[in-house]
Design goal:
The complex is a heterodimer of chains A (about 725) and B (about 250). Chain A contains 30 helices and eight strands. Chain A is elongated and about 120 Å long. In chain A, the strands form two sheets. A five-stranded mixed sheet of chain A has the order 2-4-5-7-6. A three-stranded antiparallel sheet of chain A has the order 1-3-8. Among the domains of chain A are: about 45 residues; about 210 residues, Histidine kinase-like ATPase, C-terminal domain (Heat Shock Protein 90), CATH 3.30.565. With about 725 residues, chain A is an alpha+beta fold. Chain B folds into two domains: about 130 residues, Response regulator (Rossmann fold, 3-Layer(aba) Sandwich), CATH 3.40.50.2300; about 90 residues, LytTr DNA-binding domain (OB fold (Dihydrolipoamide Acetyltransferase, E2P)). In chain B, strands 2-1-3-6-7 form a five-stranded parallel sheet, sandwiched between helices. In chain B, strand 13 and strand 14 form a beta hairpin. Chain B is elongated, with a radius of gyration of 21 Å. The chains are: A alpha+beta (about 725), B alpha/beta (about 250).
Chain lengths: ~725, ~250
């Protein structure tokens, strides 16, 4: 079967906005906040007229929150109807019942109720109520799948709204009519009505409704084969909704953009992406259109040949549609499942699903959908080699497709017909349809168009960026303007020598001082903590242990040597801690003493080397004290000590642009093993403080604070850690 | 001759203790030295020592973890630590002996002597059990404290202590049930121990449990009423601190 995998696709669910007028204009104010006052009023109501009015309002107030209560009030109202003189309230009563049935998807009962209300309004000759009720009836028939009756009522409502100069009414009715003509395949009329709606919404300056209308128009252009216009409209709608941050609408628009990628660009992954985005938004905001996204994702997976996922999503879509008694949803899900089974070679099952889908579409009056399903069925019959049956279906599809002039669909049908006639050796017909197929293909779809659309998207994204840039620029200009104003202020005040400037300066400098003081305070605190961490009590007591041990072993000279080193270190640390800057030579001396004492403590397990770059003159370089030692200590405690064999610490000190680069390298157990060993332990206090200090010191210079790298030997075994820190410095 | 095992990760500290034992304790033999808890358990199982010297800060481990593995002990433990305020508080609370590094020879001798006495006596109420229980307890007010007296010691739950009253070189604990315990230690010693556990010295001679405050009277003569209905004076110097701590409770 030639090209069947991508040449024809079923109707993709199109999300629509049908606009339903609210009833609140008919009622006493009915919001949940005043339910209480309504109930109070009910207790004091005397006449049946009053009571019915209040029952109506209460029923409407509870309609979406507590159906049982709503019904209870409606039932109470029923007993009053015959004895009520206010016919108007009776009409309202019917309208509320109608609304209730709409929420239960009981369209027959709903339309019955609305008709009753209409009769009363007609008798009372209240044009605005008549228009409203016509609109409700139209909506009712529209969703129930009775397009002819729907159109009748919309067309009755429209002149009434026009006489009343009710722009919202006009716009809503026209928009619904546009949609109705679109599904029936009369794209030009659809376009006329959408344009009318658009004009009215412009008058009302209702950007949400304009966006919605753009969005409703997009599929019309798509059905007409004008993809770039369609895409453009969808993007415009997207733009409006982005500005409004309207998630519900956005979800629907993502869906439409997905549709374009799906059916025209055949870029299924991209389509899937948009559908998913739409699903994400809908999950959160609008349960009603969930089935749409589910079904569309199903179609994408079908095209991507992930049949399992496709089936899952179609079933989800069907499930939701069943729950909501939504015909469109059911039709699309079943159509999708039909296509899926056809793909799997389960032709009989496929046909059953197509049959069901067709029934729903018939009910909806969806000509386009019908033609598509019929074409699908034809293709299944071809696979079953029942060519006559295939022809019947395909020709039916062809009639509809020609009727509504849907070139995309025609192309698919021509191709199927060509295949079918070729199979029964009717070469004359086969040739005929092949020619038609080619003709449509050429006019309909070519590479240029694809590029055009891709250009459009690029342009859209470019526009978005430009907009952002414009916003940023204008902010900058604003800032510049503010600055300029400040300058003007500065000069005038200076010229005038007023108090203002002094005040300004005083406040400003106080603010600065305060900020500086805060930073200073923080720094001092951290430095104190650093002193503590360098003079880690463990370190001090461990040294003392070592002295005691040397004394016990009668190694008196060694003990005295280390004791004096310990004294020197203590003195240096105490001195350093009172200064913000010390020279590099002193800092290195401190580290050397520290390393020597640690060497004494763990004996031959530790060796060390300090490599100072020859080009550096350590006496001339001033740095913050005690920044390096914590990293050295860390290397000893977590790298060397847990290691069984002796270890080595190397310290490299080099010039690095605006800073002094120190690399502390050890050949210990590495970070990963160390972390495992110390899983329960917290991270070293000293390191934490030091990193924080480096951050503060470096905040004005763009220096990277600490970089740690793990070292590996030739066998890829961890063989140590190297820590690189860059210290800010100044010349002595 | 009694056997001892040392659990200590610091090589120099190992040398020191073994050197001291060898030189100054004729009746003790250090039969094994372990670097960590696992080795320590092996050594204890193998040698069945009478005394275990246990360092609290081990590389990557906490010395108390030993008791997770050895719930039944028939040896005396002598803790050693260089610097661990939390552990020191814990030892004080359960009135256990411990050695501070660098180790003082007299302290070591006295700790061994006391351990020998306990080993010989049939004293089954083990202070170490209280220490272990306390360490596992989350809330410090729920922990127990060992209060020594002339004929042994009493174990009291900290939240049951209403207050301590000083009288020269000893002090009296007043408990929730109205009973009183006299200890020959200064109030200052208990103040340093209990200050982090919501106790406050509101007066020269009164350390109170803030959880037992019933009433605070302002005015010229500021005083508190605790759950034992006794008026406790609040000194001027401690008033601010009391109000602040009480508010944070």
């Amino acid at each position: 079967m030639r090209g069947s995998s991508n040449s024809h696709h079923l109707r993709i669910a199109v999300t629509i906005f049908l606009l339903v007028p609210g009833l609140s204009g008919l009622l006493l104010a009915a919001s949940s906040t005043n339910i209480d006052s309504l109930q109070q009023a009910l207790e004091h109501a005397v006449t049946h007229d009053e009571k019915l009015a209040l029952h109506n309002s209460l029923a409407y107030a509870y309609m979406y929150t507590d159906r049982d209560r709503a019904i209870a009030y409606l039932d109470k109202g029923r007993r009053l109807i015959s004895s009520v003189s206010d016919r108007h309230q009776v009409a309202v009563y019917h309208n509320i019942w109608g609304r209730y049935y709409l929420t239960r998807a009981a369209f027959d009962s709903a339309s019955q109720m609305f008709s009753d209300a209409l009769t009363i309004y007609q008798a009372l000759e209240i044009p605005e109520k008549m228009a409203l009720t016509h609109m409700l009836l139209g909506y009712c028939f529209h969703v129930a799948g009775n397009p002819d009756s729907a159109r009748q009522h919309y067309l009755a409502a429209l002149p009434l709204y026009t006489d009343l100069s009710d722009h919202r009414g006009i716009a809503q009715t026209a928009s619904n009519l546009g949609h109705l003509y679109n599904i029936q395949g009369d794209f030009d009329t659809a376009m006329d009505y959408f344009t009318q709606a658009l004009l009215a919404f412009h008058l009302l300056e209702d950007s949400a409704a304009i966006g919605a209308t753009f969005f409703n128009m997009a599929p019309v252009f798509r059905n007409k084969g004008d993809f770039d216009r369609s895409f453009e409209l969808a993007l415009q709608a997207l733009d409006i909704m982005h500005k409004r941050k309207d998630s519900v609408f956005l979800g629907k628009i993502y869906n439409e953009v997905g549709n374009i990628y799906y059916s025209q660009l055949k870029n299924y992954p991209k389509a899937l992406e948009y559908y998913r985005q739409s699903l994400d938004l809908k999950t959160r905001y609008d349960d009603e259109y969930l089935y749409n996204a589910m079904n569309n994702i199903g179609y994408c997976y079908l095209e991507l040949n992930d049949l399992e996922a496709a089936e899952r999503y179609f079933n989800k879509g069907l499930d939701i549609s069943n729950r909501q008694a939504n015909l469109t949803g059911k039709a699309n899900a079943k159509g999708g499942l039909g296509k899926l089974f056809a793909r799997q070679g389960k032709y009989r099952r496929a046909l059953t699903f197509f049959e069901h889908s067709l029934t729903h579409l018939e009910q909806l009056g969806d000509q386009m959908g019908k033609a598509r399903v019929l074409a699908e069925m034809g293709s299944v019959w071809i696979s079953l080699e029942a060519h006559q049956k295939a022809l019947t279906h395909l020709l039916k599809a062809l009639t509809i497709a020609r009727d509504i002039d849907a070139p995309g669909l025609l192309k698919d049908i021509y191709q199927q017909l060509e295949i079918c006639y070729a199979a029964i050796d009717d070469h004359a017909h086969a040739h005929h349809y092949l020619k038609l197929y080619m003709a449509v293909s050429d006019s309909f779809f070519n590479i240029e168009k694809v590029t055009q659309i891709q250009d459009l998207e690029a342009r859209y994204q470019h526009d978005q960026k430009m907009k952002e840039i414009r916003i940023l620029t204008s902010e900058k200009q604003l800032q510049a303007l503010k600055m300029k104003n400040q300058h003007t202020l500065y000069y005038t005040t200076l010229g005038g020598g007023t108090l203002c400037l002094l005040l300004f300066l005083a406040i400003f400098s106080r603010h600065q001082t305060k900020r500086r003081a805060a930073t200073l305070q923080k720094m001092t605190k951290l430095e104190q903590q650093a002193l503590q961490s360098q003079m880690n009590p463990h370190f001090i007591f461990n040294c003392m242990n070592a002295f005691q041990s040397l004394i016990l072993e009668h190694k008196n000279e060694l003990a005295m040597d280390y004791l004096s080193k310990f004294g020197s270190l203590l003195r240096l640390v105490l001195e350093n801690s009172t200064r913000s800057y010390i020279d590099l030579a002193t800092e290195l001396k401190t580290i050397k003493l520290y390393l020597e004492l640690e060497h004494m403590r763990i004996e031959d397990k530790l060796s060390f080397a300090i490599h100072l770059d020859d080009k550096l003159q350590p006496e001339e370089i001033l740095i913050s004290p005690m920044l390096i030692q914590p990293f050295v200590e860390n290397a000893i405690w977590h790298g060397i000590i847990p290691k069984k064999a002796p270890g080595k610490i190397e310290l490299f000190v080099q010039q690095n642009g605006e800073g002094i680069k120190c690399i502390i390298k050890d050949d210990g157990i590495g970070r990963i093993r160390s972390r495992n060993l110390n899983a329960k332990k917290h991270r070293s206090f000293g390191m934490q403080i030091t990193e924080e200090r480096l951050k503060i010191l470096n905040q004005h210079k763009r220096l990277k604070e600490v970089r740690v790298s793990d070292l590996y030997d030739q066998q890829q075994q961890a063989c140590g850690t190297a820590v690189e820190i860059i210290l800010p410095y100044k010349k002595a | 001759m009694i056997n001892a095992v040392l659990i200590e990760d610091e090589p120099k500290a190992q040398k020191v203790l073994s050197g001291l034992v060898k030189k100054y304790l004729d009746n003790v033999e250090l039969v094994s030295t372990a670097d960590n808890i696992k080795e320590g358990i092996h050594a204890i199982m193998k040698h069945n020592p009478a005394i275990v010297f246990l360092d609290i800060e081990l590389q990557g481990e906490n010395g108390f973890e030993l008791f997770d593995y050895l719930p039944k002990r028939d040896f005396e433990v002598i803790f050693t630590t260089a610097y661990n305020q939390y552990a020191i508080d814990a030892f004080k609370c359960s009135a256990l002996d411990y050695l501070l590094k660098p180790i003082n020879i007299q302290d070591l001798k006295s700790a061994i002597d006391k351990a020998m006495i306990r080993l010989r006596s049939a004293e089954k109420m083990d202070k170490l059990d209280i220490l272990i229980e306390n360490i596992k307890m989350g809330s410090r007010q729920q922990q127990k404290i060992v209060i020594p007296n002339s004929d042994g010691f009493t174990v009291v739950r900290i939240c049951d202590i209403v207050r301590c009253e000083a009288a020269s070189n000893y002090c009296t604990f007043v408990l929730q049930d109205g009973s009183k315990l006299m200890v020959s230690k200064t109030l200052k010693e208990y103040e340093s121990l209990l200050a982090q556990i919501d106790f406050l010295r509101v007066h020269q001679s009164h350390l109170i449990n803030l959880h037992h405050v019933k009433k605070y009277a302002r005015g010229n003569a500021r005083y508190l009423i605790l759950s034992d209905n006794v008026h406790i004076p609040v000194s001027n110097a401690r008033r601010e601190e009391f109000l602040e701590k009480f508010a944070r409770l």
